[in-house]
Amino acid sequence: MGCGKSSVGRRIARNTGHRFIDTDEVVAARAGSSIARIFAEHGEAYFRDLETAALRELSSETGIVLATGGGIILRKENRDTLRRIGPVAWLDANPDLLFERVSRNKKRPLLHTENPRETFDALLAARRAVYETAADFRVDSTELSHDAVALAVVEKLSN
Questions:
Q1: Residue 154: exposed, middle, or buried by beta-carbon count in 10 A (0-12, 13-18, 19+)?
Q2: Does 72 have pLDDT greater than 70?
Q3: I want to staple 142 with a disulfide (CB 3.0 to 4.6 A). Which of 47, 55, 94, 153 is the partner?
């Protein structure tokens, strides 16, 4: 959350000639509803099921740059599917910066809690080890622009 997956993914796609796909956009379009509304009306488990279904459908795509929601890797099936699609990049940053970025967006359903920072820190702590094992490589975007992160990802993929 807040690492710039969609912004960086669009830049990578533009720079490589691949097609950009964001799983959150796919889920919202297929559900005919925003992610926030899906969470509010049906809950997180329902959203995760929609996310998994979308990822399954995308697994046969080639020549794509795929941005996913930060929680997609929580399911082993999704981690396996992502690896079949292609290399998995983990975009990371300093937690204070990540929280500052996500705080600007009031459409983050997982942070609609009494203490959003505590919730954010707990989510990040719970996911960090999974990100580490799921990713082929990590890029720290703390001090980098989206363009520089995209370049770093492309360079790592070229090596």
A1: middle
A2: yes
A3: 94
Which residues are bridge partners to 4 per DSSP? none
Query: Which residue ranges make up each domain of the chain?
Result: 5-142
Distances (CA, A) of 39 to 29, 35, 106, 138, 143: 15, 6, 14, 29, 32
CA gap 142, 148 in Å, rounded: 11
Helix or strand holding residue 28 (H, E): helix 23-31
- Express each pLDDT in 5-31 by its tens digit: 999 999 999 999 999 999 999 999 999
* Tokens coding 139: 């890029």
CATH architecture group of domain 5-142: 3-Layer(aba) Sandwich (3.40)
Specify whether the CB–CB gap between 6 and 23 falls below 8 A.
Answer: no
**Containing H/E element for 139?**
strand 137-140
Query: Which one, of 119, 97, 105, lies nearest residue 44 by Cα?
Result: 119
